[in-house]
Amino acid sequence: MTDHSNYLWYIPNDVKAGHRGDTAAANHNRLDTLTEQAKALEDHGWKGALIGTGWGRPDTFTLATALAARTTTFEPLIAARPGYWRPANFAASVATLDQLTGGRVRVNIVSGQDELAAYGDQEGDQAQRYARTREFMRLIRRLWTEEHVTFRGEHFSVTDSTVAPRLDNRGERLHPKLYFGGASEAAERVAATEADVQLFWGEPLDGIRERIERLRNLSRTLDRDLPPLEFGLRITTVVRDTTEQAWADAQARVAAMAEGKSGNWNDHKAGAVGQQRLLDLARRGEVLDDNLYTAPGKFGGGGAGTTWLVGSAEDVAASLRKYRALGVTHFILSDTPYLQEIKRQGEQLLPLLR
Questions:
Q1: How far apart are CA 91 and CA 164, in angstroms?
Q2: 8-state DSSP, 13
């Protein structure tokens, strides 16, 4: 059976060396270093990579543009925040890069906490934050697919706005896919109505199954007027030649995390609902399902670093196929050292998934 899933990686985009145990080299965030990673992704079967965002990190869109210019098939999944961007400015920037690259742009809309005041932004409570995100997503999609757009919302407005250049139609692809994450009730209502792809962190299969069913039901209840919502998994995958070696390496890394010797792992806020769901998993056991390792979350692992799939390529592929059977078709994987693992997992893991 042909696998139509998308397999992406992660490019850290961090001024600090040693992100999540990566090689702590002085040139870790230079363009040549990151281009080497992007080209390795092309050469080893990956579709592209998520590029993280947050105040105090290099600008995500600038990096994505530079990497796209130095590659030929690499697709940047560009993380962006409403408030950091105005909708029309963002829609125009994406349309420009998408045209220049022949349709290689993907977008990840982020609503999590950030240093908003540092770049002149502000927000209210959770309901306000996700209401603004919903407006942002709806408006940029209209700007990509309509001309002379006039919109008066609670948070954003445009008058007679036509984004240039116009996006090229590429089969069924009318615009770059909008990825979105969030586990709160407010976030799920946004995903059910506005997202193209809902991203999950590395929860056990029963949790992902329940969330997919709820989101599909919510899409029907809220009269979603877009194609069916797709689903993605963002997780750390610790792959080694044997099951025993993978677990030995994973446990040694967690021991180093417990001693504070493994670099910066936690770049997500613990207060987020999705992050708290991951942290709570450790109470259910150190290993869930076949090989979902929860111990990293106890010692500072954040976001995709909170839970890991651990094992041989065969072990991890078997687990990912179970997520795929639930309806997950977008996978964003990573491990460190980033360049080494791009190659290892591209050679050992991806062929088993296809």
A1: 9
A2: -
- What is the Cα–Cα distance from 349 to 312, expressed in whole angstroms? 9
Question: How, if at all, do strands 230-240 and 197-200 pair?
Answer: parallel
Contact 76, 42 (CB under 8 A): no
Give the C-alpha separation, 274 to 140, whole Å. Answer: 25
Q: Is the bond into 165 cis (omega within 30 degrees of 0)?
A: yes
- Candidates 348, 346, 353, 354; CA nearest to 44 is 346
Residue entry with tokens 């999950």? 200
In this structure, what DSSP letter does residue 124 have? Answer: -
Q: Is the pTM of this model over 0.85?
A: yes
In terms of Cβ atoms closer than 10 Å to its own Cβ (0-12, 13-18, 19+), residue 110 is buried
Angle 172-150-219 from CA coordinates, rounded to 5°:
45
C-alpha 94/C-alpha 305 separation (Å) is 29
Amino acid at 55: W
Distance CA 348, CA 161 (A): 48
Q: What is the DSSP letter of 148?
A: S
- C-alpha–C-alpha distance, residues 333 and 45, integer Å: 13
pLDDT digits (tens, 9 = 90+) for 111-145: 877 777 787 778 778 888 899 999 999 999 999 99
Count the Cβ atoms, other than its own, within 10 Å of residue 351. Answer: 11
| pLDDT attached to residue 321 | 98
What would the 3-class secondary structure string for 154-175 be?
CCCEEEEECCCCCCCCECCECC
- Per-residue confidence (pLDDT) for residue 304, from 0 to 100: 87
- pLDDT tens readout for residues 223-267: 999 999 999 999 999 999 999 999 999 999 999 988 886 666 655
**Furthest CA-CA distance within the chain:** 62
Provide the pLDDT for residue 270. Answer: 53
Q: Is the peptide bond before 337 cis (omega within 30 degrees of 0)?
A: yes
CA dihedral 188, 193, 197, 200 (to 10 degrees): 0
The residues of the chain scoring below 70 in pLDDT are 1-2, 261-271
Do 284 and 294 form a contact (C-beta atoms < 8 A)? yes
Tokens for 282?
Answer: 């450790």
